[in-house]
Amino acid sequence: MKQAEPISIFSYQAEGASIKNRITLQQNLFSFLLEGEKTVYYAGSTVSIIPGEFLLMAAGNCLMSEKIAADGGYYRSILIFFDNQLLADFFIRQPNLLHIQSGAIQEESILRFKQDAFLQNFISSLEHMLANSQSISANMQLLKLHELLLYLGENYPGQLQKLRAVSHETADDIIVRQAVNANIDHPVSVEDLAFLCNTSLSTFKRRFARTYGTSPSKWLLKKRMEKAAQLLKRGDQKPSEIYYELGYENLSSFIQSFKQVHGITPKQYQLNI
Fold first, then answer.
1. What's the confidence (pLDDT) of residue 1?
2. Are residue 180 and residue 236 in the same domain, yes or no?
3. Structure confidence at residue 80 (pLDDT)
4. Last residue of a domain, which of 166, 183, 200?
5. Measured on CA atoms in the order 168, 171, 175, 177, is the torsion positive or negative?
6. Which domain of life is it from (predicted)?
7. Domain residues for 263?
8. Alpha-carbon separation of residue 19 from 109, 150, 223 (angstroms)
9. pLDDT at 165 (0 to 100)
10. Is residue 1 part of a domain?
11. In-domain check, residue 2
12. Is 52 in the same domain as 135?
């Protein structure tokens, strides 16, 4: 599967009375409604928008979306997909936007906005660029995203509270990925990774599952056995020479894990290569 671009902006158009989709968002999404109606169902809640409104939906949401075309017309929208890293980077570069009223931050994974005059002009600029070139350069897309986030941050401080909560969550996910990627080749435990992320074991496991879609123990087992297979394929090391490198204290535990993933022992695997 082709990896998604960090940001992509495009127009969407459909004809028909109603279109329903089940979606798992892999990236954050701004959805600007131009024509028709849109209803999103998620986690027991519902949010609807009409032209003049738009949504910001956080990555990782599992939702059902219903698009309803205008009478005798189309359903039209402009979509901005962008990854967690861009959202986290924005708040890192704009720390002044985080110095707002204190108190508990209300976390919401789907936010609704109304378009004011500036936002209407912003959307019109996107329509113009998409209509004339059919695509927008990567640099221009990034500029338009920052323009939008900066405007919302400065003019809708109440919503920024919720945006900040979403950003903190994505920043935590980034820390988990950084810790895992930096230590994937080292014999670290799940407890070690939780410590490196400066969080409790239960919190680390929850964030890990949100980021990778599985438990850290299962993910690490799979990755370590992939590395074990690569080492065994080289043929210059025996199972008894690599188990400690992979984070195992004894050979028997390594053999058991290898067989669990590959269905045969490390020795049998090496003989069958």
1. 41
2. no
3. 96
4. 166
5. positive
6. Bacteria
7. 218-272
8. 23, 33, 40
9. 64
10. no
11. no
12. yes
User: Phi/psi class of residue 236: alpha, beta or left (left: φ > 0; alpha: ψ in -120 to 50)?
Assistant: alpha
Residues 144 and 173 in one domain: no
User: In the block, which residue shows the tokens 């986290």?
Assistant: 88
Q: Amino acid identity of 90?
A: F
Q: At residue 28, what are phi and psi to the nearest 5 degrees?
A: -70, 155
Give the start-end residues of each E strand in the chain.
Answer: 7-15, 18-24, 28-35, 37-42, 45-49, 53-57, 62-68, 74-82, 110-114
Nearest 5°: CA angle at 217, between 215 and 221? 120
Yes or no: say if 37 and 54 are a contact pair by the CB < 8 Å rule.
no
Same domain, 203 and 153: no
Which of residues 166, 194, 229 is at a domain's end? 166
The whole-angstrom separation of Cα 57 and Cα 61 is 7
| Confidence (pLDDT) at 266 | 93
How do strand 18-24 and strand 62-68 relate by DSSP bridges? antiparallel
The secondary structure of residue 70, as a DSSP letter, is P
- pLDDT, tens only, 187-219: 778 998 888 888 899 999 998 998 888 999 999
Q: Which two tokens stand for residue 31?
A: 């959805």
102 in a structural domain: yes
Counting runs of H as helices and runs of E as strands, what totals does the chain give? 10, 9
Number of compact structural domains in the chain: 3
- Spatial contact of 66 and 59, defined as CB atoms under 8 Å apart: no
Q: Which residues of the chain have pLDDT under 50?
A: 1, 100-105
**Do 87 and 208 reside in the same domain of the chain?**
no
- Residue 204: per-residue pLDDT: 93
Tell me what pLDDT residue 166 has. Answer: 61
CATH number at residue 247: 1.10.10
| CA distances from residue 210 to 61, 62, 213 in whole angstroms, order as listed | 10, 12, 6
